[in-house]
Amino acid sequence: MANDSFSIKLDNRTEEDIKKRIAELAKSYVPQWHFDTENPDIGSTIALLFAEQTMRNIKHFNHLLPKYHAQLVNLLGLSLMPAQPSGSVVFIDLIADTMEGTFIPSRTKLLSTETEDRIVFETTAPLYVSNSKFTGGFLTRRSDGRVYKFADEAAEEFFFEPFPLFDFRNMEAEGEDSVVISHPFIFDVEDEDIRIDLTGNESLLSKMRDGKFSFLFKGPNGYMPVSDYQVTSTGVILQKDFSCIAPQYQELEDEELEVLPQEPTKLKILANEPIIETISIDKMAISSNGSFRQMDFVGNEEESFKENNFAPFSDKLDLFNECYINLENYFIKQESQITMEFDLLFGTNNISISQKELDESLKIIKRKPRNQADELGPDVYPDEVTMCYYNGSSWRRMDIDGFDIRMFAKGTEGHIKFTFECPADWQSIDVSGRQGHYIRIQLIQSYNCYMIPAVHHYPIFKNLKCSYSYNNATYKPKEVTLISGSRTTDVSNAVATDESVDLFHPSPYKEDALYLCLDRPLVNGPIGLFVGLSAGTSVPCQPFALEYLARDGFKQIQIEDGTHNLSQNGVLRFLPPEDIVKSTLEGREGYWIRIVAAKQSNHEVIPPIIEQFKINAVEVLNVDSQAEQVFYLDEITPNMSFPIEGNNILDVDLWVNERNVLSAEQMEELMRTNPDRVKADVDILGAIQNFFVKWDEVDSLEFSTKEDRHYILNRVTRRVYFGDGLYTKTPTYMDGPAFVVFVRSCDGERGNVGEGAIDQSIEYLEFVGNITNPIPASGGNNIESFQNALKHGANLLSNSGRLVSAADYIRDISAMSNNIEHVAVVSGVDQYLRKSENRLNIIVLMKDFEKNSLTFQRLAPSIKRYVVENSELTIAEDDIYVVEPLKVKVTVDAWIRRDLTEDSFVVMEEMKRVLKEYLNPISSESHMGWNIGVLPRRKQIFMKLNSVSGANRVERMEVVAEYTDEKGTHVVTLEELPNNMFFVVVSGDHKIHTF
Predict the structure, then answer these.
(1) Contacts of 784-789 spanning 24+ positions with Cβ under 8 A
(2) Phi, psi of 100 (to 5 degrees)
(3) Are 84 and 745 in contact (CB under 8 A)?
(4) In angstroms, rounded to a whole number, what is the distance separating the alpha carbons of residues 687 and 762?
(5) Residue 648: DSSP 8-state
(6) Helix, strand and coil in the chain, % to nearest 5
(7) CA 241 to CA 84: how far, in whole Å?
(8) Using omega within 30 degrees of 0 as the cis cutoff, is the peptide bond preceding 543 cis?
């Protein structure tokens, strides 16, 4: 039935629309049943009867006359909610290398070029565009005073991966509290006592006994812990089971080798706990001892010998035969007493010429040789032997107790013991491709050694061992470096001169804080700092303060917090401090500001995920402040109304010319007492030509008096209404403009433009370069529809404007905005089901939740205020929490047997589309959406997959759910997912496999 001009359609559906909807729902809920309208079974017949009855009811509803419809709304005292402008944040940059900054006034008009339509945005606050940029930053932790790096310092520009603010569980601290003591040789000994004397602090030694410090030596592979340590009354005795000597060569091209310099041996004393007080000592000294050990190397330039049994000059004594011995860890111990012991034996070697050699030598002489069978020749001994070390330029004889240059000349066997002081100028040299400190044993005299025949008595060294000792003497370290966090201090001179030294200092960082470094100081102002958070960040939030570094420390900056305690993307606005100074923190020089977490908070804190920091940011709204509209009167009648221009009108400023009704004294009094509400036009002589007074918008003139300057704005008809002129005011000036109107309008839902769409300025902005919005504009809403107003009315009739049951809360809050998709009410627990008796949670899911939380954050305060004003429950305002649901990402991995008649890729993509739609909490024409707290079951997903044409059956399916709580992110099977009334399902990235 066609509707005439006197009726209004409450429901535009046709009977075909209803049947189509039945078919869609049947496919979702009972996929095994086919709804057939041509050859209906009993189920289809019932569905067709239901469709016919529903259509009859719709026809009856659509006969409601417009005036009755409007009257119903008026009787309920309802007015249509105005349109809502979308909002976003805009970055404004300077043209490179132009000037230090430029000022952008409030209500500067910017333009979106995403569509052909003109969509205007206005800045909500003034902004000074600065040329300062972030160059780096770091985090500090209150509990241990450590520094944590979050930015990529290798990048040319300030860059960082998203990180949870003040959640240090997965972050690695920079720096440490330690003392590094180095010496060229005293520490380098294995499985022997290394003594560290630390006098003047019994408390330090007591802490070492309690295990509050660790001891590590630097080896070839970095610092390694000692094998054992013992704290004495004067210090610590350490033992390590590895060598500190690093590899002495590095390979070059063409298989060449380069000798590497030997680094000093380093000991690190590392604090295992945060340092809370200064720890000092009066003196520091070191020493070590080495018990007897075999040589590292014994040999000559051509071959190596067995270390425990060798002939230094071989079994044939030749002049200048030599042998090198090396025990590197001991031979580098300058000024120590080195003891060398071995058993001296002699071997015998009869040297004679063979008959063949003799015959060859007598060929020319032709004499008959003598019979040499019984001739042995003289006895040959090593008559003079030297022991030398290399001093860097030549071999120098060693001053050895117990050594005589002729001690091997008589062939006397026995136990030999040498003692000498390790020379201070002993240098390393290469022997047979091996670098080290060597003793060279050289034969310099052996009488008759070249006579033949002869008997050579050659020495044999057996069980050669070496030890060293400093005989209780101690020495100063060559270098002592203090490490506090990432700062280092050299106190070598103070230790060398026995000055008192503060070894450990408490960290200067006593806050959970985020430090940011700027390359230039911020000047003028106001400054806009954008803080970008990842999607899903929601209240509870993180109370904080913004501070800057002045000459006498950090000071607080007063800010306008657009992030609501870091619970949403937003802008921090502040005036730059004048006394900020350039300082160096953690090796970086610049101008420092920091975000400091509140030490105590009544809020539960969930770490926000920080994605971006950016200077020169300002919030914008899709608001178009239009030029004034001037109205003139031809006649004055009661209840006058006038049309005004503008779609989706937000509000108007209406100024009425009262020059004809106010005396000069009254006008002067208004200008003195209310200068913001009057505007006067004067001529060159100072006479007032027009006197405009600002009037106020009201919902109804029923309670207005003749003295009240009131008007009504109907945003649907786009008209302004005045009173009757008798009991209520109306404009009366006819000799010029009667009143002027300034309209502020928006584009409603059209204003929800995407990221990067706001990129132009309508007016000329000097020195301004790029303009962009880093987040999509959201929250735009058209003026409320009559259908939604009737929903309001139904709620009002149901609960009389009072919130009693959970259904009351859900109905009223759902009707507050077209952007709201689902509402749930949960009491007595927090988001993670921890008991909180007085807590009332209003859980709200917005239709644009996937973009960001901006729409939710803009609406949340209004929802909380409405609940406080209308709730019948006795509940404190601080116990009401308006929160977003916790998202559960459900991901499906399925293996299906494909119908060979269908294209494999098409089937797979169709199944992904079906799953993505099915697991979407937002409703659509073919999908009901998922309510908060309701999650799909495995069987439902299985049936949904099997309903897709082209797949014979699902052979295997895996479903996992990912969610985040106060303990972190978890991935579990759908069956293992805990029940939580705050959960809402969202679609993951699904994978479909065919075979």
Answers:
(1) 784/80, 784/81, 784/82, 784/818, 785/818, 786/8, 786/69, 786/73, 786/80, 787/10, 788/81, 788/815, 788/818, 789/73, 789/78, 789/80
(2) -75, -15
(3) no
(4) 37
(5) S
(6) 15, 40, 45
(7) 74
(8) no
Residues with Cβ within 8 Å of 401's Cβ and at least 6 positions away in sequence, in order, are 418, 419, 420
In this prediction, residue 7 carries a pLDDT of 44
In this predicted structure, what is the pLDDT of residue 70? 53
Give how far the C-alpha of residue 625 lies from the chain's centroid of Cα atoms, to the nearest Å.
40
Copy the structure tokens of residue 158.
């300030």
Which position has the token pair 């705050």? Answer: 982
What tokens were used for 691? Answer: 């006197």
Write the CB contacts of 363 (distance below 8 Å, at least 6 apart in sequence): none
The answer to whether the CB of 521 falls within 8 A of the CB of 576 is: yes
Angle, helices 938-946 vs 904-918, to 10°: value is 140
CA-closest candidate to residue 632, choices 735, 781, 725, 721 = 735
SS3 (DSSP) at 217: strand
Q: How far apart are CA 165 and CA 145, in angstroms?
A: 16
Q: How far apart are CA 941 and CA 987, in angstroms?
A: 12
- Among residues 958, 795, 969, which one has the least CA distance to residue 887? 969
- In this structure, the number of other CB atoms found within 10 A of the CB of residue 320 comes to 10
- SS3 (DSSP) at 675: helix
* Cis amide leading into 737 (omega within 30): no
Report residue 986 as tokens: 């969202």
Q: What is the pLDDT of residue 254?
A: 47
The backbone torsions φ and ψ at residue 409, rounded to the nearest 5 degrees and listed phi first, read: -75, -25
Query: Which pLDDT does position 565 carry in this prediction?
Result: 85
Nearest to 425 by CA among 332, 346, 498: 332
DSSP string, 261-287: PPPPEEEEEEESS---S-EEESEEEEE
Q: Give CA–CA dist 451/372, Å, rounded.
A: 14
Tokens of 95: 């043209």
Residues 6+ apart with CB under 8 A from 182: 264, 265, 266, 267, 477, 478, 479, 480, 481
Which residues, including other chains, have CB under 8 Å from residue 979's CB and lie 6 or more apart? Answer: none
Whole-angstrom distance, CA of residue 323 vs CA of residue 302? 10
Nearest to 651 by CA among 701, 702, 694: 694
Peptide bond into 453 cis (omega under 30): yes
The Cα 141–Cα 594 span in angstroms is: 13
Half-sphere exposure of 50 (CA within 13 A, CB side): 14
Give the H or E element holding residue 25: helix 15-29
- Relative orientation angle of helices 42-61 and 15-29, to the nearest 10 degrees: 140
CA distances from 472 to 195, 341, 624, 841, 963 (A): 10, 22, 89, 74, 64
Residue positions counted in the chain: 995
Q: Which of 980, 761, 772 is nearest to 886 (CA)?
A: 980
As a whole number of angstroms, the distance between CA 625 and CA 622 comes to: 10
DSSP 803: B
Buried-exposed string 379-391: b where 16+ CB fall within 10 A, e elsewhere: ebbbbbbbbbbbe
Structure tokens at 281: 């000592």
pLDDT of residue 360: 61
* Phi, psi angles (nearest 5°) of residue 656: -100, 135
pLDDT 10s digits, 555-611: 999 999 988 888 778 899 999 999 999 999 988 999 999 999 987 655 556 788 898
- Spatial distance between the Cα atoms of 633 and 660, rounded to a whole number of angstroms: 13
- The segments of the chain whose pLDDT lies below 50 read 1-7, 249-261, 537, 539
CA distance 934 to 928: 12
> What is the model's pLDDT at position 992?
87
